[in-house]
Specification:
alpha+beta; 7 strands; about 20% helix
């Protein structure tokens, strides 16, 4: 379980309905399989007044930006856009600085 307050962009995207949230793990797994992601890419997120499930890919190695390590989750939005003549899903990257 992760806290959305630790990932400011995750909390912002959940509030603005850019990352879909689900009440049960089973619903999140159905959404993951419908967009072609593995069912184990489901994460429980603890928010201020609720606990929800989202589809997010966990990156094992930290992402290094300017010598600073970040723990990263990649979250699909479920919406598509056209880029260079192909249809691609909008994906958000949520980071937390590691101390």
């Amino acid at each position: 379980m992760i806290k959305s307050s630790d990932y400011t962009m995750m909390e912002f995207n959940i509030i603005n309905n850019l990352i879909p949230t689900f009440r049960t793990k089973k619903d999140a797994q159905k959404f993951a399989s419908s967009i072609g992601w593995q069912q184990y890419n489901v994460v429980r997120v603890e928010r201020r007044f609720e606990t929800v499930w989202i589809v997010a890919q966990t990156h094992i190695q930290p992402k290094v930006i300017a010598g600073i390590n970040f723990e990263t989750y990649t979250c699909p939005s479920g919406e598509y856009e056209f880029r260079n003549g192909t249809q691609q899903m909008i994906v958000f990257e949520c980071k937390k600085m590691l101390l």
